[in-house]
Amino acid sequence: MPEGDSLFRAARSLHRVLAGHAVTKFETAYAHLDRVNVDTPVVGRSIERCESAGKHLLIVFSGDLILRTHMRMNGSWHLYRHGERWWRGPQAMRVRLDTADWVAVAFDVPVAEFVTKKQLETRDPVAQLGPDLLGHEFDRDEAIRRIIVSAARPIAMTLLDQRIVAGIGNVYKSEVLFLSSVHPEVPSSAVPLPTLERMMDIARGLLQDNVLDGTSPRIQTYRNLRQLNPASEHEESLWVYGRKGKPCRKCGTPIESKKMGLDARTTYWCPSCQTIR
Ligand SMILES: [Zn+2]
Question: Active-site residue 258, yes or no?
Fold first, then answer.
């Protein structure tokens, strides 16, 4: 699952090159999108903006039409110049949007739909997202309130729930817990309030740090970053994630790991440093 920051970066890259430009071509492998396109053509509309809302990427067109995509595990958006070779073959293409200068391609996005502004605000999953860690005005108190009402659920699972707080993926989950000294299995309501406040500040800081350095218009999800360069500095800079059995960078104790939750995502932690439980 891409972290909130990589989606934020993807949205920003798309926004930088697409916003204010007219759509010159629209193609999709999804019949439900194609049907909307036939009824209310996308070609000719201008792209007003591209933004992320939690794990959703929104492309807002003129005339009250919004394309909402969700990357889940394998989806990604890429930008190309006309004629440039694609990273994936055309069979992985789900949505293609052209402007005069750019081609934006969504590969393997499992969720894509057209909605109106009103639908987005009411029935759409975006409306159910918790406070967005990368939002201009992150509502920390509301995020903490939602964490506390998660009661007995382990904090590691609560942090991944986008309805509680939007933006944390599996990597940052482990990192944030380590940096907050909190054991991943502690019940959500048992984490002391000052610790939750610190945890939210750390999560916001980590996500913000990772969006600030993205200056090129290439889209990098965490996933393709690792594929391109498996031993990337990004990987090297992690405290616990992916480091099972290796010595803790603070105390030397071997890092432990465990699959937690319905879809069994692996959580990593240091048993000596993460004492709040
Ligand atoms: Zn340690």
Answer: no
Distance in angstroms (rounded) separating the CA atoms of residues 150 and 10: 30
55 is catalytic: yes
pLDDT mean over 174-201: 96
Whether 66 and 116 have beta carbons less than 8 Å apart is answered as: yes
Task: Please say if the pLDDT value at position 232 is more than 80.
Answer: no
- When mean pLDDT is compared across 89-98, 159-168, 186-195, 227-236, the lowest value belongs to 227-236
Residue 70's DSSP bridge partners are: 56, 111
What span, in angstroms and rounded, lies between the C-alpha atoms of 165 and 129?
Answer: 7
Cα(6)–Cα(273) distance, rounded to whole angstroms? 28
Contacts of 38 (CB under 8 A, 6+ apart): none
What is the whole-number distance in angstroms between the Cα of residue 273 and the centre of ligand 1?
4
Which pTM value belongs to this model? 0.64
- Work out the average pLDDT over 226-242: 59
Strand, coil or helix: 235? helix
Active site residue 2: yes
Local structure of 104: helix, strand or coil = strand
Structure tokens at 174: 């482990």
